[in-house]
Amino acid sequence: MERQYAIQDEAWLKSRYRSLIVYCRLLSKFQVDLSKRSVAFAHHWPSSLARQMVLRKEPTPVMSTLGRRLLLALVPTGAAALVAWGWLSYQPAPSVAAPAPTPASRVSNENGLTIVTLDEATQKRSGITTETLSATKRQLEQTAYGSVLDLQPLIDLQTHYRAAAADEAGARAALDASSQEAERNRVLFQDHMNISQKALQAAQAAWSADQAKLQSAEANLEGVRASAQQQFGPPLAALIAGKDTVLAGLLDGEDMMLRIVLPIDGSTAAPVQITFESGARGRIAARLVSPSPQSDPVAEGPTFLYRAPASLPVGSKVIAFLPMGQQPAPGVVVPRPAVLWFGGQPWAYVQQGKDRFVRRLVDDQSPYDGGYFVDSGFEAGERVVTRGAQLLLSEEQRPPVTAVAACKDPECDD
């Protein structure tokens, strides 16, 4: 490329030199022609005008001498002007642009791991903060799903039960009265017929009617109890009868009922106590009430009823955690702000040294204590990025900047 530009410069100089020679020749030719015209003018000069100039003592004009002087002055001036014009119009050939240095990349690969490097000043400007992971232990758990049960049908059954119980009590009282009346009439009739046979028969008929009413009231009461047992199980059926004061908080609104579906493989028995996520209040414990007589309309598997403090609206979906085993498992809790989602998976950035960050998969995570409990992939004492993780991910995914991309000059297109 440099040799090509040198050849172009040499050709340009030769063309300017030829132009200068042609110009000088034209000036010389113009000088000779002007000299000839001056001599001819002197020969044809009018004598009368010459005499007047002599009388006036004016110098006789010699055009040839003035022309020569003028031409002698114009030749170097024109040559200098031509040289100046050539110098000003000359544009030096563009030099070959030196390749721009490739900007230092902040992303590197080591042993299959993508590492983002940011100095401490850049970290401070970007607002990147980290938090140290602490060792903890947690009971191994299995995840189950369920929902908050609507207890309005149970409340309605309690109302029906109380009405049926009142009817049954009234029928029983009426039966007792009619029974005594029929017995007195019988004794009086047998004692020398102190009452008529008609009165005796009327008393016995009233007694029989009250017996039928009592049987109907008892059947109605038993039907309400059976309906409650069919929908909610024996413990809740006993609750509406007022025989279980432990579950009274369900009808008062202090507690709520959870219907939890256990895994269908049957490897986990129904624990006496479980925990579940309740949103802002974190984890809340729930205690087993009984097996559910009805299955969940969405999930399949063994279904159980659990009682817990009221914290969620009716119909809310819950994630329950069933304890497994006896020994707690060691691990760490990755803070919730440190987890970011990319490619449909949770990740967290771990700081290595002062200026290196590597992204790790938060595998087999489960919500715990305001974060995610993991028993592998992270170690206690490591620092995870709790603020600025998205910035690191953007830096990691940014295409590499090459020298051609960094150069903005037109010469970079060659």
Helical content band? 40-55%
Question: What is the 3D shape?
Answer: rod-shaped
Mean pLDDT rating:
77
Which segments are poorly predicted (pLDDT under 50) over 5 or more consecutive residues? Answer: 44-63
Pairing-aware structural class of the strands and helices?
alpha+beta
Q: Distance between termini?
A: 11 Å
The whole-angstrom Rg is 56 Å
For the largest beta-sheet, the strand count, sense and barrel status come to: 7 strands, antiparallel
Strand content: 15-25%
Spell out the helices and strands N to C. Answer: HHHEEHEEEHHHHEEEEEEEEEEEEHH
Count of runs of 4 or more consecutive helical residues: 10
Number of strands: 17
Word description of this protein:
- With 414 residues, this protein is of the alpha+beta class.
- The protein has helices spanning 2-43, 47-55, 63-89, 120-126, 152-190, 197-232, 234-240, 248-252, 389-397, 403-406; strands at 107-110, 113-117, 129-132, 135-138, 141-148, 255-261, 273-277, 283-291, 303-309, 317-323, 329-335, 340-342, 345-352, 356-361, 366-368, 371-374, 383-387.
- The strands form three sheets. Strands 1, 2, 3, 12, 13, 14 and 17 form a seven-stranded antiparallel β-sheet that branches. The protein has a six-stranded antiparallel beta barrel with strand order 5-6-9-8-7-10. A four-stranded antiparallel β-sheet has the order 4-11-16-15, with no helix packed on it.
- α1 (2-43) packs antiparallel against α3 and α6 (197-232) crosses α7 (234-240).
- The termini are close together.
Give the gist of this structure.
The chain has 414 residues and is of the alpha+beta class. It has helices at 2-43, 47-55, 63-89, 120-126, 152-190, 197-232, 234-240, 248-252, 389-397, 403-406, and strands spanning 107-110, 113-117, 129-132, 135-138, 141-148, 255-261, 273-277, 283-291, 303-309, 317-323, 329-335, 340-342, 345-352, 356-361, 366-368, 371-374, 383-387. β13 (345-352) and β14 form a beta hairpin.
